[in-house]
Amino acid sequence: MKNQCLFLLLAFGLSFFSCKNKEAEQLKGEIQLKDDQITQLQQQVNHLQTTNGSLLDRMSDLSIVSKAGAESIQKSLESLSQQYDFIQNLTEKVQSKDSLNLALVMNLKRSLSDVNDDDIQVEVRGGVVYVSISDKMLFRSGSAKLSSQARDVLSKIASVINDHEQLDVLVEGHTDDVPMSNSCMDDNWDLSVKRATSVVRTLANDYYVAPERMTAAGRSEYLPQADNDSESGRSLNRRTEIVITPKLDQFFKLLEAPGIEG
User: Fold this and answer.
1) What kind of fold does domain 102-253 have according to CATH?
2) Mean of the per-residue pLDDT values for the chain?
């Protein structure tokens, strides 16, 4: 009887420990599963953190691009504004110059109203004022010496020129294509230059036009107004032109665009 009781106690003990082992193994498995889940969650957290950092970097890059783009647009707008102001200013000055030319032409025509229109013409060409005077009004044939009639005309022109000190004066001598040579002139080039010089010298010495405002030039036969095949055409080509222009330095300054940053 005693042995039987011991056997039962031993069996119960083995059964009890067997159950405990199973529970421990089950708990161990559950713990391992939880550890695996935790590892997976940690990996997901790490992935999300990496993704979030990448997104933040991209957002930062986009912010920089956006800022650079905004600065570029601002510079472009400033450049357009400067160009618009330049064009508007240029337009105003061109309109002012046109108004000045109109007033200059009217003053010249008024001063020369008693002169035959066939001998002197006043007009605007290419934005500048031309006074074209026939050679018979200024010079004898083949000569660069001014006549008394020429001095009267030049004094009236000088009076108007002196009222517009902001303008320069170009005097051009022109001839026909008939070859000429004498003791005083070598050829038509020589004649055209000396006639222009004679007019410039008279305007400066006798009528007080500032010499630094004037230029003398000879065009010879190479800028005709008419065909040289007829006497009337050759007569038109023998002329002296007084070209009244804006001062070149001011003119080129007018055309300068403002400094624009790219």
Assistant:
1) 60s Ribosomal Protein L30; Chain: A; (3.30.1330)
2) 80
